[in-house]
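Minutes, project check-in

Agenda point 3 was the complex the collaborators sent over. CS summarized: two entities, 494 residues total, and the question is how they sit relative to each other. Sequences were read into the notes so everyone works from the same version.
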Amino acid sequence: MMSENKVGTYRFVAEPFHCDFSGKLTMSVLGNHLLNCAGFHAADRGFGIATLNENHYTWVLSRLAVELENMPCQYEGFSIQTWVENVYRLFTDRNFAILDKEGKAVGYARSVWAMISMETRKPADLLTLHGGSITDYVCDKECPISKPGRIKVTEKTPVSEYQTRYSDIDINGHVNSIKYIEHILDLFPIEFFKEKRIKRFEMAYVAESYYGDILSFYREEVGEKEYDIEVKKNGTDVVVRSKVIFI
Amino acid sequence: MMSENKVGTYRFVAEPFHCDFSGKLTMSVLGNHLLNCAGFHAADRGFGIATLNENHYTWVLSRLAVELENMPCQYEGFSIQTWVENVYRLFTDRNFAILDKEGKAVGYARSVWAMISMETRKPADLLTLHGGSITDYVCDKECPISKPGRIKVTEKTPVSEYQTRYSDIDINGHVNSIKYIEHILDLFPIEFFKEKRIKRFEMAYVAESYYGDILSFYREEVGEKEYDIEVKKNGTDVVVRSKVIFI
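CS then shared the predicted structure for the full assembly.
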């Protein structure tokens, strides 16, 4: 197998309604593009949702970490590369590079995925899937950002509450992975994004939430310009955790 | 000038995070695509935002009406055609057709735009712009849906209130046109979208709202499965009006 086939490259343009007040692409839209690229890359190699669904399996995103020097500007072209770094029995690590219009890397991302049975919701063994052929795509391309770390929030008073609505819900009946990013960034006043920019952003997807759930957002400043966030549903179960580091 | 050049056609795929619980593209994402197509079409013909900005003019969306038989499903390809129907001194009518993956029209849209000076915020004369050459693109392609109508809301008690946040705000410092669509559809319980679907959707953009504004949503049932919505900022000024007809 040719090594070039291991890395998928996908082109985008920063659309105006996908940019924030500063004219830069938002993190939630970048997250959407990253997850789409993961889908395209897997589908092109026989591990896409459509193929998996036939066998009643689906990919589940567990962790996402993005670190950036710069975001594409409105109307600017950019591209995303993605490749598989590791395949374990229950998880696979998929990495990304974000390239500016000149092809220079302006950021990287790491993600961790599991595959589950849609019937039992139990994890599937990735090493036996398609006779283990997913491991043929493992690639040692460099991804010079640290792996998603542990996020721990002790704060007991929510900074915000939100009841999930129609536009939060995806085809699985869950709040979609991208909407959490939007809700989490909306916890910060716009001044944060004026004086600073996001250097690193992490998401840990712990459990699903559903239509009508009350999400409580707990935020803690854990370092200079570094915030850990925990989202609970209906006052009890942790749904997602996130880390936002501004610079 | 060849008449084919009057109609622009742009291809899309319904991305998973752009679909709702039913696996169909959401109206807000369709709205985003429509406005992008307007931008592409204008830019390709010398009337795009980039060219206008050099001359300190910009397009302002005044009205949008969308009527559909069907929405594209998750992962399905579809395309959008757009063309200019009329050019008046202060407004231009731009229409759209939404074609399914087989190229069959499943819906149409109408929009009304003005051009304003970014310095004075006053409207510009479209008939003298670029020596009136915008009128060369006027096209009599059929758009078999009715024009945006009058929307009148007398309801005095808001059904919902919302303070605008970071992710609502675009590069102009305004709540972006697409976010209003999302907030308006979120006024309806998900059951509405389960039992029915949106047949026609209208937006009238009246004034701008800004970061931190409190938006109040007034909703009135004006016919069977037909709702008029008015959004006011800070308890006084009308910002947008909308009509949603379910079927």
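Noted in discussion: The interface with chain A takes residues 15-23, 26, 28, 32, 35-36, 39, 49-50, 74-75, 165-167, 169-171, 173, 176-178, 182, 185-186, 188-190, 193, 211-212 of chain B (CB under 8 Å).
Follow-up: revisit at the next meeting once the mutant set is ready.
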